[in-house]
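Why do we care about 3D structure at all? Because function follows from shape, and shape follows, mostly, from sequence. That is the central idea of this module. The next example makes it concrete: a single protein chain, its amino acid sequence, and then its structure expressed as tokens.
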Amino acid sequence: MNKQKYSLILLSLVAVIALAVTVAAQSRPRRVSPPDTLLGPEPKSSPATDKNAPLLDVKPANPVGSAPVSSDTTHAFQLFQQKQYAAAAKEAKEIAAGDPANAEAWKLAGFSEFYLKQYADASDDLQKALDLQRRAGPEDSHTVDALAESYVLGERFDRALPLLVTVTTRAAAKPDPLFLYYRGLAEFKTGKTADAERSFNAAVKANPKDTASLLFLGQIALGRNDLDTAISTLNRATLNDPRLASGWLLLTSAYLRRAASATDEQKSNADYLGAVRAGETLTRLRSDALAKTPTDVNIYRELGYDYEKTKQYAKAFSLYQKALEVAPNDADFKESQERVRPFAKS
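And the structure:
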């Protein structure tokens, strides 16, 4: 297999691979995101700290501080238990406004907002609760866990990291794999790549099916040109989640880069074949995604580029034409259609 045959594939992938790495590094780690994000699959429970039922550990009749009887959070807590989170948050906030030293009210408001996915508000209120707890006595671990998670999901990684270190290093406690992942994510986002790699490895050791951590480990290895590790790790990630488009994209890049640098022609050919297969899988995934979300212009853009890089110009032209029906004023689609027009007719 001649390397020149694949040189255009390698060159055309550069832009899309760079885009993938950027997206991987900037994806919002939200539980409402689809599984194909670098944040990973949605945890089964929300928040992850609620595993043994004592979610709030609220003492509604005895708020912290010298609060009047009217500051009792019993009813708000009942609303929370009934999953009426908006009503619980509203009532708890009203109590906290009248009694700012009521840690239980701030805590209840924060947990309610967490369940409403209002992470900025949740982290603000949980931070107030934690500050009050620390002044009054020992801090509550549930509050710390939920605050750390709220900061992560709200992308306030610098605030999340110290709390995540606390959560994952508690004495006589086995770290939750999810929080190990969160710690790695916060470290990665704050430029502590070496620390992030250790945390992601710890998360994978605790949970070998942690696709998100494997994806980040693959990206980190790719960034330092450790192609063997990148390929091994990304293969594990795509095995865990065969629909992980970002994993297949990075895997394609890793195979191509290793093939281009190989001195053994047989190994080089094998890696080029691996790149082709990974690229074909990526194209199928994006085709499926387009069928499910026919108005998502980003999928049109990505799939169109996939067709171009594999020289399927007629399909690319047709796709860009459909894309312009969805987004008629998109200059990129117009330019892309004109770019492939001569080849589509040949």
